[in-house]
Amino acid sequence: MFVRAYKWFAVGASALLIGCAGGDRLPNPADPWETMNRGTYAFNDTVDRAVFRPVAELYAFVTPRPVRTCIRNMFLNISEPWSMINSHLQQRHIDGINTMGRFFFNTTVGLGGCIDVASMNGQPRIQNDFGVTLGVWGIGQGPYLVLPFLGASSVRDGVGTGVDFVGNQLDTIGQIPNVRLRNSVWGLEVVVRREALLTVSETVDRTALDPYSFVRDAYLQQRAAMVAGADDAQSLPDYDDYEDVEADDKALGIEQER
Question: Domain range spanning residue 174?
Answer without folding.
Answer: 3-22+30-247
